[in-house]
């Protein structure tokens, strides 16, 4: 990302860019910044295309067209799916972009083995936007609240980080809500965070697996019903349960391997208070039981994909499997 910032500051740009990755907030931010830096508000020299099945000849004509009373033009292509194919026409087009034009691809996912990815990497710059580290998120949050003239206590910050997850768009939205609520106050407290901020599904999954681990199966099923009421897909819930159990397995193995909390936090890229919660939950299982829990999640996920089981039943079965004494310590 530093390369993008340098290009924008220097007002010198590659002929072609590819922005992609899991952190959509950063993808959109750099898309807008590049667009503004390259052509400003000049819509006469902007061509935009979205979706799959774009006509290569039409795009090529736009790329080869000279700028209209300007130094450069921009061709913006989003969600084309071209970086999962081996279309030679498109990769050849990337290699023939004139100096008067800049092409910006914005994609959800890419295959780094594809011709298009290799062509863009050779002729321009590929930028993958990943979720920032815990330290980066913390600095960003503190700076964000600072712009509102607000300070936040450590316990409030920990709670905010736990509730908002690692998606920067969600963090930004929750930050704005919390800042508006706390305007005029001396600072932000944990009580403010708990009252205002929406809890992420990952936290609800943790509560659900914690309830199961403690033998509160009925409460866990009630939490699951709440997630369904919020229109959360059953397969996503099943995936997150599997991820949670796998994370517990990793924590358990590292603890058995005599790694300390700081080492575990660094390996999992989470804060120490999260490690404390994971350790507390992991200690209610043996390694073999956690392995079996993960395997059971995979088995049920495959059953759903094959059409042999309903999503809702699969999640209920995995919760009951985790709660079963066969898997408990």
From TrEMBL:
It comes from Anthropogastromicrobium aceti. Keywords: DNA replication, DNA-directed DNA polymerase, Nucleotidyltransferase, Transferase. The lineage of its organism: Bacteria, Bacillati, Bacillota, Clostridia, Lachnospirales. It catalyses: DNA(n) + a 2'-deoxyribonucleoside 5'-triphosphate = DNA(n+1) + diphosphate. One of its GO terms (molecular function) is DNA-directed DNA polymerase activity. This is DNA polymerase III subunit delta. SUPFAM superfamilies: P-loop containing nucleoside triphosphate hydrolases (SSF52540), post-AAA+ oligomerization domain-like (SSF48019). Its EC number is 2.7.7.7. Residues 202-321 form the DNA polymerase III delta subunit-like C-terminal domain. InterPro entries: DNA_pol3_clamp-load_cplx_C, DNA_pol3_delta-like_C, DNA_pol3_delta_N, DNA_polIII_delta, P-loop_NTPase.
